[in-house]
Amino acid sequence: MVAQPAERHTDHHLREQLVALARNAQVNVDLDDPADYWYRLGQRNAYAQALGLSAARGVDQVAFEIADRLTDALSNGEHDVNFLLSRAIEAAPAATNDSPQWLGPHAFRAQYGHVPGVDRDYGMRWGETGNQRISWRAPLDASRGLLYAYDPLWNEYQVLGTDVPRQAVDAAFKQSLDSDIHMDVGAFGEVVRSQVILGRMSPIQPLAANEPTRVIEP
User: What is the pTM for the complete model shown?
Assistant: First the structure.
Protein backbone atom coordinates (compact mmCIF):
# COMPACT_ATOMS: atom_id res chain seq x y z
CA MET A 1 0.00 0.00 0.00
CA VAL A 2 1.47 3.33 -1.05
CA ALA A 3 0.97 6.14 1.43
CA GLN A 4 -0.55 9.44 0.38
CA PRO A 5 1.74 12.51 0.44
CA ALA A 6 0.24 13.80 3.70
CA GLU A 7 1.12 10.52 5.39
CA ARG A 8 4.81 10.61 4.54
CA HIS A 9 7.37 13.25 5.29
CA THR A 10 8.07 15.49 2.34
CA ASP A 11 11.51 16.52 1.15
CA HIS A 12 10.84 19.95 2.67
CA HIS A 13 10.14 18.43 6.08
CA LEU A 14 13.31 16.34 5.88
CA ARG A 15 15.37 19.41 4.99
CA GLU A 16 13.84 21.43 7.81
CA GLN A 17 14.88 18.69 10.20
CA LEU A 18 18.46 18.68 8.92
CA VAL A 19 18.67 22.46 9.27
CA ALA A 20 17.28 22.28 12.81
CA LEU A 21 19.83 19.61 13.74
CA ALA A 22 22.67 21.73 12.35
CA ARG A 23 21.37 24.76 14.24
CA ASN A 24 21.10 22.80 17.49
CA ALA A 25 24.67 21.59 17.15
CA GLN A 26 25.78 25.20 16.69
CA VAL A 27 23.74 26.48 19.64
CA ASN A 28 24.74 23.71 22.04
CA VAL A 29 28.49 23.90 21.53
CA ASP A 30 30.54 24.34 24.71
CA LEU A 31 33.31 26.79 23.85
CA ASP A 32 35.07 25.97 27.12
CA ASP A 33 35.37 22.28 26.25
CA PRO A 34 37.72 21.62 23.29
CA ALA A 35 36.46 18.05 22.82
CA ASP A 36 32.83 19.20 22.74
CA TYR A 37 33.75 22.06 20.41
CA TRP A 38 35.22 19.82 17.72
CA TYR A 39 32.54 17.17 18.16
CA ARG A 40 29.71 19.71 17.72
CA LEU A 41 31.51 21.33 14.81
CA GLY A 42 31.70 17.95 13.08
CA GLN A 43 28.03 17.35 13.84
CA ARG A 44 27.00 20.69 12.40
CA ASN A 45 29.03 20.21 9.24
CA ALA A 46 27.70 16.68 8.73
CA TYR A 47 24.09 17.88 8.94
CA ALA A 48 24.88 20.78 6.59
CA GLN A 49 26.45 18.39 4.10
CA ALA A 50 23.45 16.08 4.42
CA LEU A 51 21.18 19.01 3.55
CA GLY A 52 23.36 19.76 0.55
CA LEU A 53 23.22 16.18 -0.69
CA SER A 54 19.45 16.06 -0.25
CA ALA A 55 18.79 19.32 -2.09
CA ALA A 56 21.49 19.07 -4.79
CA ARG A 57 20.18 15.82 -6.26
CA GLY A 58 23.65 14.37 -6.70
CA VAL A 59 25.39 17.52 -7.94
CA ASP A 60 28.45 17.54 -5.68
CA GLN A 61 29.53 21.15 -6.22
CA VAL A 62 26.01 22.40 -5.54
CA ALA A 63 25.87 20.24 -2.40
CA PHE A 64 29.00 21.91 -1.06
CA GLU A 65 27.61 25.36 -1.91
CA ILE A 66 24.41 24.62 0.00
CA ALA A 67 26.36 23.33 3.00
CA ASP A 68 28.58 26.43 2.96
CA ARG A 69 25.57 28.75 2.82
CA LEU A 70 24.09 27.07 5.88
CA THR A 71 27.26 27.03 7.96
CA ASP A 72 28.01 30.66 7.04
CA ALA A 73 24.56 31.77 8.19
CA LEU A 74 24.86 29.78 11.42
CA SER A 75 28.29 31.26 12.10
CA ASN A 76 26.77 34.71 11.67
CA GLY A 77 24.27 34.01 14.44
CA GLU A 78 21.15 33.21 12.40
CA HIS A 79 18.89 30.65 14.12
CA ASP A 80 15.57 30.84 12.26
CA VAL A 81 15.07 27.48 10.50
CA ASN A 82 12.93 28.83 7.66
CA PHE A 83 15.38 31.60 6.86
CA LEU A 84 18.36 29.27 7.09
CA LEU A 85 16.73 26.75 4.77
CA SER A 86 15.62 29.27 2.15
CA ARG A 87 19.04 30.91 2.10
CA ALA A 88 20.90 27.61 1.90
CA ILE A 89 18.97 26.10 -0.99
CA GLU A 90 19.11 29.12 -3.28
CA ALA A 91 21.64 27.19 -5.34
CA ALA A 92 19.60 23.97 -5.42
CA PRO A 93 18.13 22.61 -8.67
CA ALA A 94 14.38 22.34 -9.08
CA ALA A 95 12.69 19.58 -7.11
CA THR A 96 12.13 16.23 -8.81
CA ASN A 97 10.46 13.01 -7.79
CA ASP A 98 13.64 10.97 -7.35
CA SER A 99 13.47 10.65 -3.57
CA PRO A 100 13.65 7.08 -2.23
CA GLN A 101 10.25 5.39 -2.40
CA TRP A 102 8.64 3.04 0.08
CA LEU A 103 8.27 -0.49 -1.31
CA GLY A 104 5.90 -3.28 -0.37
CA PRO A 105 7.43 -6.57 0.82
CA HIS A 106 7.08 -8.28 -2.57
CA ALA A 107 8.72 -5.41 -4.46
CA PHE A 108 11.51 -5.20 -1.86
CA ARG A 109 12.25 -8.93 -2.07
CA ALA A 110 12.12 -8.85 -5.86
CA GLN A 111 14.65 -6.02 -6.08
CA TYR A 112 16.91 -6.71 -3.09
CA GLY A 113 16.17 -10.25 -1.91
CA HIS A 114 19.31 -11.46 -3.69
CA VAL A 115 21.58 -9.28 -1.53
CA PRO A 116 23.61 -11.69 0.62
CA GLY A 117 24.48 -11.32 4.27
CA VAL A 118 22.89 -10.83 7.67
CA ASP A 119 21.08 -7.80 9.03
CA ARG A 120 22.67 -5.56 11.63
CA ASP A 121 19.81 -3.59 13.19
CA TYR A 122 20.18 -0.02 14.43
CA GLY A 123 17.05 0.00 16.55
CA MET A 124 13.32 0.27 15.95
CA ARG A 125 12.90 3.82 17.18
CA TRP A 126 13.05 5.90 14.01
CA GLY A 127 10.56 8.29 12.47
CA GLU A 128 7.86 10.51 13.90
CA THR A 129 6.00 7.53 15.40
CA GLY A 130 9.24 6.05 16.79
CA ASN A 131 8.62 2.55 15.40
CA GLN A 132 10.59 2.30 12.14
CA ARG A 133 13.64 0.05 11.96
CA ILE A 134 16.93 0.78 10.22
CA SER A 135 19.10 -2.17 9.16
CA TRP A 136 22.38 -2.72 7.34
CA ARG A 137 22.72 -6.02 5.44
CA ALA A 138 26.08 -7.46 4.45
CA PRO A 139 28.19 -10.64 4.77
CA LEU A 140 29.94 -10.95 8.13
CA ASP A 141 33.35 -10.08 6.68
CA ALA A 142 32.13 -7.19 4.48
CA SER A 143 32.58 -3.47 5.12
CA ARG A 144 29.87 -2.29 2.69
CA GLY A 145 26.26 -3.32 2.36
CA LEU A 146 22.58 -2.54 1.87
CA LEU A 147 21.08 0.11 4.16
CA TYR A 148 17.30 0.13 4.44
CA ALA A 149 14.40 1.10 6.71
CA TYR A 150 11.29 -0.89 7.57
CA ASP A 151 7.92 0.56 8.60
CA PRO A 152 5.87 -2.06 10.50
CA LEU A 153 2.68 0.01 10.37
CA TRP A 154 2.62 0.04 6.56
CA ASN A 155 4.70 -3.12 6.12
CA GLU A 156 6.93 -1.23 3.70
CA TYR A 157 10.65 -0.80 3.09
CA GLN A 158 12.77 2.15 1.99
CA VAL A 159 16.24 1.57 0.59
CA LEU A 160 18.66 4.24 1.81
CA GLY A 161 21.72 2.94 -0.05
CA THR A 162 22.92 -0.20 -1.81
CA ASP A 163 26.70 0.05 -1.25
CA VAL A 164 27.03 1.79 2.11
CA PRO A 165 30.13 1.59 4.34
CA ARG A 166 29.33 0.29 7.80
CA GLN A 167 31.68 2.90 9.25
CA ALA A 168 29.46 5.68 7.87
CA VAL A 169 26.32 4.04 9.28
CA ASP A 170 27.94 3.64 12.71
CA ALA A 171 29.00 7.30 12.69
CA ALA A 172 25.51 8.47 11.71
CA PHE A 173 23.96 6.25 14.39
CA LYS A 174 26.24 7.64 17.08
CA GLN A 175 25.46 11.16 15.93
CA SER A 176 21.70 10.56 15.99
CA LEU A 177 21.80 9.20 19.54
CA ASP A 178 23.20 12.55 20.62
CA SER A 179 20.81 14.73 18.63
CA ASP A 180 17.55 13.02 17.62
CA ILE A 181 16.82 9.39 18.51
CA HIS A 182 13.62 9.50 16.42
CA MET A 183 15.22 10.97 13.32
CA ASP A 184 13.33 10.63 10.04
CA VAL A 185 14.80 7.67 8.15
CA GLY A 186 15.36 9.84 5.06
CA ALA A 187 17.33 12.31 7.16
CA PHE A 188 19.35 9.42 8.61
CA GLY A 189 20.16 8.30 5.07
CA GLU A 190 21.38 11.78 4.15
CA VAL A 191 23.54 11.94 7.29
CA VAL A 192 25.07 8.59 6.30
CA ARG A 193 25.83 9.98 2.83
CA SER A 194 27.42 13.05 4.41
CA GLN A 195 29.60 10.80 6.57
CA VAL A 196 30.76 9.00 3.41
CA ILE A 197 31.71 12.35 1.85
CA LEU A 198 33.39 13.65 5.00
CA GLY A 199 35.27 10.38 5.36
CA ARG A 200 37.01 11.09 2.05
CA MET A 201 38.15 14.50 3.23
CA SER A 202 41.06 15.38 5.48
CA PRO A 203 40.08 15.44 9.15
CA ILE A 204 39.71 18.82 10.85
CA GLN A 205 42.81 19.75 12.77
CA PRO A 206 42.24 21.02 16.33
CA LEU A 207 43.46 24.42 17.42
CA ALA A 208 46.77 24.67 19.20
CA ALA A 209 46.59 23.98 22.93
CA ASN A 210 47.62 27.56 23.76
CA GLU A 211 45.02 29.14 21.49
CA PRO A 212 42.81 31.25 23.83
CA THR A 213 39.82 31.84 21.54
CA ARG A 214 37.52 29.30 19.93
CA VAL A 215 34.68 30.15 17.62
CA ILE A 216 32.45 28.01 15.43
CA GLU A 217 33.99 28.36 12.00
CA PRO A 218 32.11 28.11 8.71
Answer: 0.60
